[in-house]
Request: fold
Amino acid sequence: MSQIAPSSTLQPATTRPAVNRWRILLSAVEGYLYLAPTLIILGIFVYAPVFTSFNLSLKRVAPFGGREIWVGAGNYTRLLNNPDYWNSVKVTLLFTLGTVPTGLILAVLLAIALSYPLKHLSGLHRLLIFVPVIISSAVAGVLFRWLYHPVVGYINYLLTFIGIEQGPNWLASKQWALWAVIIATIWKEFGFNVIVALAGVQNIDESFYDAAKVDGANTWHRIRHVTLPLLTPTLFFLLIINVIHSFEAFGQIHVLTEGGPGQATMTMVYRIFYDAFVGTPQRGIASAQAYLLALMVIAMSFVQFSGLGKRVHYQ
Reply:
């Protein structure tokens, strides 16, 4: 005769799926509780300002009061018809063209040198190359403000050794102010570019160089046909990062020139700050500029990915 199982072992068929659903729900709740501090901080300091700024970009805000007038796309129209705004776009593009290519070329050259002819240098030397990166933009600006001083600055003093007795007034000249900021920015970002490029060079397999030597390639040919093609992923990463940093540059400009002289160094980011907090605040205009800047950065990143991404050679 068949035995009847004890009643304690008999469970309804619907009990187990219900338990599984509760376990999944509790697991999801537990995960969101772990994420809650991060989500709250992001919501307060990132997402809420983004939506508030977009709301302000559609309004005209009273400079010294809480009155707001809905203007829709009026702020954007005013900007696109404002020559001062287009001047800030031009200055930003010139600043980017001055800092990014020069900084990357110098960084790659030094990274290759540190990997081969200067590879005996200790880690201390490489640390010293990276030191400017950890210095704040304000400190770097103060340092270069002193170096650029027309009377006691070391840069004009060094120029006398090559026959230039009267060096330029770097920060007060429309012709030289932007170059002064570009040089300071290249120095500030140089260590980061060198360290990343150096990591990319040292990550290249030696077998590629051995094969090139067997084929009779000299040092230049090995660099041209082995190092640079295999370094393109690193260079592409550095290009994207440096372009974004150039569009966001603020600290060194604020300390060195404050956007002057005569708007010669008035980049898009500095104009946002100027219109929002200096003189008569125009927070609606400043918010619209912030969104136009974001769209420009996204567009430039898309162009770089679509145009240069296909030429990146991955091992």
Observations:
- The chain has 13 helices and two strands.
